[in-house]
């Protein structure tokens, strides 16, 4: 099953615009500087919690070349990690439009399928959301170990010191919940897209958070997103998508998509690459966080 899924995610690269064959067969545009590769890895957190994981990453080759994405050679360099969590009744590959763009921008995007909230899960229950932050971190640790694994394609290519958590809907809950008390200092931030109210208190090392929410969301009310945002005790920004719902803005060509991709990619560049210009330049990320005289001058 994992092999079949990966075969459905083969990439062809045009100049600065990787094109992905999605599971449904539609072309997926992914803007960035790198061709994009994909691996499918098998992790678990105990026998009853299998965590099949898709990993998109910067691949070797020049923009404009044609690269087979399945297990493609990794680009030269070390790349920071993003752990992406899908929502209820969803799958990692449903978010390929976003994850491949992040990979093309120079990030290794790790996306597990959670055992009890993924699409068509045999024992589906939303109550399992509380277990997913630990699942996500276990997968981060598993991928991080590959940087030191002799002969593994990722060996020497992963910046394991810096991680950002991201997710949509129930996956946004998972990403936010990774920042409760006791979390690793490796977590430098989180991207919370249409996230629900968490059942925990934020705590531990400060981790900058970007919230994105449509103010016409019928699934997770906008007021809920604002309430979660208000509880964050450290640096935070909120991007309101006016008139938009729970997720239409995650599809190319839809209103709000460019703002989401620009703000999230700039956030990753800021938090993981230390790119101050990504935070300070005019654009949706600066709108979300507001001016910062100390940082931006």
UniProtKB/TrEMBL annotation:
Record SUPFAM superfamilies: alpha/beta-Hydrolases
- Which of UniProt's keywords are assigned here? Hydrolase, Lipid degradation, Lipid metabolism
**A Gene Ontology biological process term:** lipid catabolic process
Q: Name one GO molecular function term.
A: 1-alkyl-2-acetylglycerophosphocholine esterase activity
> Which superkingdom does the taxonomy of this entry point to?
Bacteria
Keyword presence, Hydrolase: yes
- List where this protein forms a coiled coil: none
Q: Quote the InterPro entries the UniProt record gives.
A: AB_hydrolase_fold
User: Does the record's keyword annotation contain Lipid metabolism?
Assistant: yes
Q: What is this protein called?
A: Chlorophyllase
Give the species this sequence originates from.
Asanoa hainanensis
